[in-house]
Amino acid sequence: MTPERLVIGIGNPDRGDDAAGVQVARKVHAGRVIVWADCSVLMDLWDAHDDVIIVDAMNSGLPPGTIQRFDAGDKPLPARAFPSTHAFGVAETVELARSLGKLPDHLIVFGIEVADVELGMHLSDEVADAVDRVAHEIDTMLGGG
Amino acid sequence: MHDERDITVDYLARVEGEGALHLELRDNEVADLKFKIFEPPRFFEALLRGRRFGEAPDITARICGICPVAYQVSSCNAMEDAAGVAVPDQLQRLRRLIYCGEWIESHALHVYFLHAPDFLGFASGIAMAEFFPDRIEAGLALKKVGNTLMTVLGGREIHPINLRVGGFYRVPTTAELEALVPDLERALEIAVETTRWVSGFPFPQFDRDYEFVALRHPEEYAIHQGRIASSGGLDIAVDEWPDWFHEEHVEWSNALHARTSDGSSYHVGPMARYSLNSALLTGTAREEAERAGLGVTVSNPFQSIVVRAVEMVFACEEALRIIEQYRRPEQPSVEVSPAAATGHGASEAPRGLLYHRYAIDGEGLITEAHIVPPTSQNQLSIEEDLRAFVPGHVQLPDDELQWKLEQAIRNYDPCISCATHFLDLTVERR
Questions:
Q1: What pLDDT is recorded for position B251?
Q2: Is A141 on the interface with B (CB under 8 A)?
């Protein structure tokens, strides 16, 4: 197993705040960063890693910019909080991997609550601020930054 | 006293209202039925105006994360038509090859994760994974081979960046393609097993007399080029699409509904392709179709899952055949000089015929863009299926009826189907 921590940012860069996870991944200084739009490949991506951090946009009704941290090893992710227009959102993929016995040993998922996911490349202010805070937290966790 | 039932299916995802179904029953008769979809291409048509003709493939690829190659190939075909340029056959083979990857990826996703759970009584692929882990892993393995093909030819898995008007930015070496052969051979085996598996599913008795519309090519099962043909005898060049089909607004949906010029519905997608072109399938695909009990045409939409499986067998075989015959082209693309003209292009997206039309000016700027995706062409047909299906199943409890109706919608693998396993379902009785 690779000791290196894998950081995966998920989202559509062209869809407003949906890009939050992608932006965090781009800002993180330490660790390997992969940016992705479709979650069905997550299991392949983390296949050789014990220690994985995922960041995705979240739409659970909380105020925009709210950050939530989930330990996927503890309990299932709230699927409703991570909806996806693709068949596989983060929550579905994590649960699929759990069913197949393919979860990494440690998997932390950060969710950033969105305000606006209309087509366009801007982040709303609250989400941009949350992106900075999550990137900083991950850098701290990884001992970089 | 009337017995009224309302069944409303609202869809909640990153953008609300991308797809919804409303059904109103009165005395067990369909009083009202509306199937709505949100249609991203309309936004892109406006976005494309004023952009350079060469940008269309990369911009339109963003319309769909599942079928970007379809958008790229249809837009390239249209721009090359406008410029009067013919792309050499070796480059066309590569377009067909990457398209095979997209069919494998998209069909694997739909067959295993979206549609099979309907037949087996699971709410989702995740729920199914506990009981059928081997099947789900097989589905993931197939999808991965499709992804790999897309990555090698397209530069990356999602939204490939290597296709351009006139050909490719870079063409793969023979060695790069030959490295894919073991994976594709394994994928072919899985696709065959898949076909045998899904052909044993229980299919509701339900047949429709569709007007099938698909590309047709004299020498091969049409994917990336061909003429537009129909089961009613239509045989036209792609640039005649506007003469034979039209779109109209309906008040309940922001998507346009496509009809034939005489106002009828028509059906695009795997069943249409199969019914028009099954004689041109590759050997194993033809054998498996026969073994699965498919006739020369298919008229039960619930059997579309079998047709998709057969098309996966075909796509694996075809990809292997293209790789075997591959000689690396000397040039990755041909020069395309814009002239003021209108160009038409079409190709067979996993979900069916995808038609593009562009007007460009003498500077090579797009002045008008028109994109007709498969789901908007199938929208009427979906509604008609539901109207025809409900009377024979109206005695089912609401939840079972909803399930069957969703399954009937998923027969078309509409772009919204990705989300329909996460629908909020509400039933109102009045």
A1: 64
A2: no
